[in-house]
Amino acid sequence: MSVRTRKDNYYLLSLGCSKNTVDSESMAQILNTGGLRAVGDPSKAEVLIVNTCGFVDAAKEESLSALRELVELKRGKQMVIAAGCLSQRYGEQLVQHVPGLDGVIGTRRWMDIFDLVTRLRDRKHPEPLYHLPTDATVVGLDERGVLRASVQGASAYLKIADGCRRPCAFCAIPKIKGTAVSRPIASIVAEAVQLQEMGVKEILLIAQDTTDYGYDLGLKDGLAELLDAIVAAAPHIPWIRVMYAYPGYVTPRLMETMAKHKQILPYLDIPLQHGHRETLKRMKRPANVEWVYDTIGKLRESMPELAVRTTFIVGYPGETDEEFEGLMKFITDLQFDRVGAFKYSYEIGTPSATLANHVPDDVKQARWERLMEVQQGISLAKNQRLIGKTIDILVEGHGEGEDEDGNPTGGSLSLGRSYRDAPEIDGYVIVEGELPVGEIVPVRITGATTYDLFATAELQEPRTIKPGQVFGPGDLMMPN
């Protein structure tokens, strides 16, 4: 039996968001095609890669720490490569933060990762090599035939575009990723078909701004057109989920498209960031708050079961008590299903970094706590309304039940997500018994907390119940 040598192997650590994960999967496919193989132990690989995140301070520090650790551990001819957002943002300066780096490759030519590895293998001198083109227009046009998706169990993130042309004052993404570049519809549809053939049950469409899809291709309602094409070509994908919509660009046609196709989940992730006009103006975000009220109303009218997820920033420079109260009224009025809240984080190089009247940290914290307390009440009430109803869930795994003190009860549980729950960021549905992992099954909701639901499985086929018969968790299990 032949033993694979270390020089044939690579270790790839992916940090940050789902969009980064897709890029990591794409780089892995290219390295695999080049003859390398992935390993989970960095000591057994010649090529060590960290696909970094450079969006907020905590993510940057995590990326730097991971790179430094690998550099300290590298031996012999091992090479450490920094890829992704932090690399694109800081370029050649990154080596000053992490001495000993061998290569730096940015977000705009991730598809050249094998070429960089080859150059590093052939180099005659120890100086680091940089691959940091500033032109982002090649993204989507030279992807080396890889699947631009990250498959995680029965779900898959499918990237439809990269970059962003929005002017948000607090965000460094356009500087990191470049302007928005859409992938061709034909490529995305072909990948959706491929995912269908792989047995994927849920596709999550992702981009920095999904509602901007097709603008650079000359399409007016590009996302709606793309959704129609995916539904037609991959009719056996049960769930299609739209992430990262932009305020003002949820068009009537998009609403109509989402409402008419059962495959498209009545779920919309639309990061609004604030609910007061003046704060939004300083953020350089769409400030027409009335549009949000009107659009959310129309969405709920066309899709009564719609779940809306959004995010808000508290403590943005200049945020007054009046502006924060406006945000609280906005949240109370619109009753969002899911909310993520963040305290404003200073980002060097962004327009917001030059703003005056920064909000003290203790005020940020108090506002964040109040917002979360109010939203938790809203989320709990919405979850409680589902008690007694039957909904479908995508089963993701099994676990063991615990009592109030955390002691195991011996009973089996299944963990799943409903249409209201995107992976990683929303809640779960916890079900008695072991349901088939990777399948979509109906369950009856029996209880609710702020974020999660409890349920029992609905029987798919009628059973003859004998007088006095007692059912245990196993009796509720869905048939395979």
Structural description of this entry:
The protein has 480 residues and is α/β, with parallel strands linked by helices. The chain folds into three domains: 126 residues, 3-Layer(aba) Sandwich (Rossmann fold), CATH 3.40.50.12160; 234 residues, tm_1862 like domain (pyruvate-formate lyase- activating enzyme, Alpha-Beta Horseshoe); 87 residues, Beta Barrel (OB fold (Dihydrolipoamide Acetyltransferase, E2P)), CATH 2.40.50.140. It has 13 helices and 20 strands. The strands form four sheets. Strands 7-8-11-12-13-14-15 form a seven-stranded mixed β-sheet, sandwiched between helices. A hairpin with a 5-residue loop joins strand 16 and strand 17. The longest helix has 24 residues.
**Binned strand content:** 15-25%
> Largest beta sheet: what is the strand line-up?
7-8-11-12-13-14-15
Assembly type of the chains comes to single chain
Radius of gyration, CA atoms, in whole angstroms: 24 Å
Structural class: alpha/beta
How many H/I helical runs? 13
Number of domains: 3
Helix content: 25-40%
**CATH homologous superfamily assignment of the largest domain:** tm_1862 like domain
- List low-confidence stretches: 461-480
Largest sheet: 7 strands, mixed
Mean pLDDT level: 89
Q: What is the CATH-assigned architecture of the largest domain?
A: Alpha-Beta Horseshoe
The CATH class assignment of the largest domain is: Alpha Beta
The counted number of beta strands is: 20
Assign the CATH topology of the largest domain.
Answer: pyruvate-formate lyase- activating enzyme
**What is the distance, rounded to the nearest whole angstrom, between the alpha carbons of the first and last residues?**
39 Å
Note the overall shape: globular
